[in-house]
Amino acid sequence: MTDTTPMPPLRIAIAGLGTVGAGVIRLLDTNRDLVRARAGRGIEVTAVSARDRSKDRGVNHERFHWEDDMIALARRDDVDVVLELVGGSDGPALALARAALDAGKGLVTANKAMIAHHGLALAAQADKARAPLKFEAAVAGGIPVVKGLREGTSANALDKVYGILNGTCNYILSEMEQTGADFAETLREAQRLGYAEADPAFDIEGVDAAHKLSILAAIGFGARVDFANVRTTGIVAVRAADIAQADALGYVIRLIAEADVRDGALLQRVRPCLVARDHPLSSVDGPTNAVVAEGNFSGRLLFQGAGAGDGPTASAVVADLIDIARDEVGAAFSMPVDQLVDFPPAQPGDRLERTYLRFTVNDRPGVLAEITAAMRDADVSIESLIQKGRNAEGGEVLVAMVTHEGPERSIAKVLDLLEGSDSLTAAPLVLPILPN
Amino acid sequence: MTDTTPMPPLRIAIAGLGTVGAGVIRLLDTNRDLVRARAGRGIEVTAVSARDRSKDRGVNHERFHWEDDMIALARRDDVDVVLELVGGSDGPALALARAALDAGKGLVTANKAMIAHHGLALAAQADKARAPLKFEAAVAGGIPVVKGLREGTSANALDKVYGILNGTCNYILSEMEQTGADFAETLREAQRLGYAEADPAFDIEGVDAAHKLSILAAIGFGARVDFANVRTTGIVAVRAADIAQADALGYVIRLIAEADVRDGALLQRVRPCLVARDHPLSSVDGPTNAVVAEGNFSGRLLFQGAGAGDGPTASAVVADLIDIARDEVGAAFSMPVDQLVDFPPAQPGDRLERTYLRFTVNDRPGVLAEITAAMRDADVSIESLIQKGRNAEGGEVLVAMVTHEGPERSIAKVLDLLEGSDSLTAAPLVLPILPN
Fold first, then answer.
1. How do the domains of chain B map onto residue ranges?
2. What is the pLDDT of residues A69-122, one digit of tens each?
3. pLDDT tens across B51-63, in order?
C-alpha cells in the first residue's frame, strides 16, 4: 500500500468544552502524528460549540469554527462526526445527539446518563441511518471496557459482569480505610481535592455506577438497556466502624456494580459489598475503576485503570474516533437493537449469599438475645459475631456479624422482625460478601 | 434494520485439531446463537485438516470436509477464513498462512512464534491482498490485549508496556512462593499438572514471553516486530532462597516482559524481577497473565486473565472471527506495515534501577568485604543487605542485597569485578526491582 492518495481527514465537531472537550483537543494536538498513523487518516476538529465562547479553557479553540447553536453544529456540512460532551441525560445533549444522527453524522459521546436512558433509541436511529454511535468514555473512563465486552469477550456467554464503576465512592471508601475517618469528613476532603462533586448525590447514592452498569449489562448480555431496574444502594450508611470490622474479618468495603442473567431474568445491582483481600477488586484503591467479566470460555477477565479525569476520558473518546476513521464500526450494543432481549428484572430473593450485618443498639440487657432470636426465626445462621463495647461518645453499642450462605430474603425477614424495635438506635446495615 | 436478507455465513477452515482447535469447534457449537447475533451472521466451519484423521478429539469433526493437504485446505472455494492452529514458527504453519493470504482468504492464528518471526511479512501480504490477518490468541490467551492495544489505547503514545506473559513461569514462581519448594521440584510438579510442557525450555527460558512481547511492542509502539533483539533471561536461576529473601523485603518474584521506546530506541526484555506487594502484578498468581499499558493520556491500564488453555484461547480466536464477520478489520499491527518504524535496539546500560543481588559464597572470613569492595568500586550503593547463615546441606552462605537506584552498567561492573573470585560458589543472581 502506498501513501500517495491519502484518505481525507475525519472531521469532528465538539459540543461542550469542559475539561473533557479540552482534553480531546489537547490529545489530538499532542498525539497528532500517531493518531493519523493509527487512524489511517487525520482526525481534524472543524467546529466547536459551548455555552461561553470567551471562557479560558487552556486550549486554543479560536482556530475552529464556533457555533452558538449546537443543533447547527450537528448539521454542518464540514462535519463527519459529532462529539457530544455536554452532559445530562436529556435536554441539549439529547437534542444534539438526535440531530447529529438525523443528519447522518457519526456520534461519539461520554454521556453515561444519556446512554443509560436513551441509548436504545439512539442506537436504533444509528442502525437505521447506518451512522456510527460510540460511547467508550461513558463507562469507566479510560478503561476500554465497552470495547472489552463488545469485541474482546464477544465469543462468550457471560456468567456475570461486575466491578467498581464509581471513582468517587471508591476514593471515599479506600480513604476511610486508610485514615479511619468517617464518611462525612472523608466526603468533604474528597470534594476539596476534586474527587467528589459539590453535589455528590449521583455518585454516593450509586446512580452514576447504575448508569454505567446498565450499559455494560446491555452489551454483555445482549439485553435492552434497563437502567430503571438497577437496584441501587449508595455508600452513605457505611461507617468507619464497618470498615474496621470488615478489616478485622479480612475484607475491604467497595461499591460493587454487578449484573447477570439467570433463568431468563436480568439482575442488576449496585451495593457496597465486603470484598475479600485475595479478590483482585480488593486492591483497587482511590479513584481507580475495574471491571470483571466472567465468560463461559474466556474465564475471568479483569480490566482496570483510571475511571475518570480529562486525560483518560479523552483517550477513550479518541479511540472511538479512530475506530470510526478506520471504518471499524458496527452495532453500538454489540448487536442490532432489534435483537437485544427485553429481559424481565430478576427477583433476587432466592439468591444465596453470605452477608455482613451491623446493628447499632442500646447498651442494655436482652438486646443481643432479641437480635439473635430474630436471626433464628428468619432461619439465618451466624458464622461469626463481634460485639463492640460502647464508644466514647454515647450509649451506642455496635453488633456486627457475618452469616453463613443463605437466601437474601431471609436477611430481609430479619430486618422485618426487628423493624420498630426500640433496641436499635439506627437502621441496620446489610452488606453482602462478594463471592471470590 | 430487518432480518429478511441474512448475510451469508462466514466460512472457516481449521488447520490443526489439538486442544485449541477442538475448543474452537466446541465454542462455536455451544455459543452458536450468541455468536451469530453478535457477528451479524453465522460462523460455520466447512473444512478441517490435521495430521491424524482418526484421533479422538472429543468433538465430532466428521461433519466437516477433511483435507489431508493443508495447502489444499487454504485454497478451498468454500472457505473465507483459515484458522492456523498448527504451531511452530516456520514449516507447515507458515506455508499454510502464506497460502491462505495468497488465495485472498482471511487468516486467524494463535501462533506467537510465527507472528514474532514472520508477522511483518504476513501483515504486508495481508495489506496487499486486503485480507484480514488477526492473532489475538497469540498473546496472553483469553485476555483481549492485542485488541486492548490496537483499539483500546490507540489514541495514546505509550510510555511502556509490560506484564506477565508466560503462565508456566508464573505458575512455577507463585508455587515456589506458596510451598517453599525449589525450582526443579516445582517444575516437575507443574509438568505433572499440565502447567508445563515435557520440554519446558521455551517457557522457562523466557522465549515464549519474548515472542509475545515482541508482538505487543510492535502494536504498542508502531514498531517493526523485532524478536531477535528481545533481551531474555529465564527463571531457571531463581532459588527458593531468593523467593524467601524477596518476601522478607516485601516483594514477590515474577517473570516480567517489558518494552518501551526512549530516545528513538526500542527496549525489549524479559527478566525475573522483584515486584512490590502493592503493585497490581504482585497478586497475579498461577497460570494467570496480565499486561500493563501506560499511555500518555489513558494512564495505567491493566488487563488480566487466563493466559492459556483451550477455552480462553478459543475465546480469543472466535473474537477475531467475529471481528471479521462484522467487517471490523484493519491493519494487523494497528497501522500498515510500511509505516511501522524500524527502531534500533536500546542499550539499557544508562537506565536507572534498583536491583536485588544474591551471592552464594564460601563461609570464610573476608568474603563480605570482597563483595562490598566490588560494590564500592563499581559505585553501587547498598540499600539493605541480608547475610543468611550456612544452610543445612553445605558450606554455602547466601548474601542478598538491594541496591539504591543506579545505572545498570554499574551492576554489570560489580559482576565483572567478582568474575572468577573463588569466594563465590555460583554465578550471582541479579533481579531488577520493578518500579511501582
1. 10-138, 145-306, 349-432
2. 999 999 999 999 999 999 999 999 999 999 999 999 999 999 999 999 999 999
3. 888 888 888 889 9
Instruction: Look over chain A and give the mean of its residue pLDDT values, rounded to a whole number.
Output: 95
Contacts of A142 in chain B (CB under 8 A): 295, 297-299, 301
Q: How far is A311 from chain B (nearest CA, A)?
A: 4
Domain B349-432 in CATH: superfamily? Answer: ACT domain (3.30.70.260)
B145-306: CATH topology is Dihydrodipicolinate Reductase; domain 2 (3.30.360)
Cα-based distances in Å from B19 to A179, A433, B85: 50, 36, 9
- Please report the DSSP string for A222-267 in residue order: TB---GGG-EE--STT--HHHHHHHHHHTEEEEEEEEEEEETTEEE
Q: Is A160 a catalytic residue?
A: no
- Cα–Cα distance for residue pair A173/B36, rounded to 1 Å: 42
> CA of A166, closest CA in chain B: separation in Å?
16
- Do B153 and A31 lie within an 8 Å CB cutoff? no
Fold of domain B10-138: Rossmann fold (3.40.50)
Asked if the model's pLDDT at residue B245 lies above 60, the reply is yes
Among A residues 339-378, those touching chain B with beta carbons less than 8 Å apart = 339
Distance from CA of B422 to the nearest CA of A (A): 45
Q: Above 50 in pLDDT, residue A180?
A: yes
pLDDT surpasses 90 at A52: no
Confidence of residue B6 (pLDDT cuts 50, 70, 90): confident
A383: which 3 cell numbers? 458464622
Residues in A closer than 8 angstroms to B309, CB to CB, are: 299
Question: Using the beta-carbon criterion (under 8 Å), do A154 and B322 form an inter-chain contact?
Answer: yes
- Of A37, A155, A329, Cβ closest to residue B27: A155
Question: Any idea which residues of B carry the catalytic annotation?
Answer: 212
Q: Considering A112, A134, A160, A212, which one is annotated as catalytic?
A: A212
Interface contact B385, partner A, CB < 8 A: no
Report the distance separating Cα B269 and Cα B230, nearest Å.
Answer: 5
Q: What 8-state DSSP symbol labels residue B105?
A: -
Buried b (16+ CB within 10 A) or exposed e, A345-364: ebebeebebebbbbbbbbee
- CA dist B116 and A10 (Å) reads 33
pLDDT in tens, B123-176: 999 999 999 999 999 999 999 999 999 999 999 999 999 999 999 999 999 999
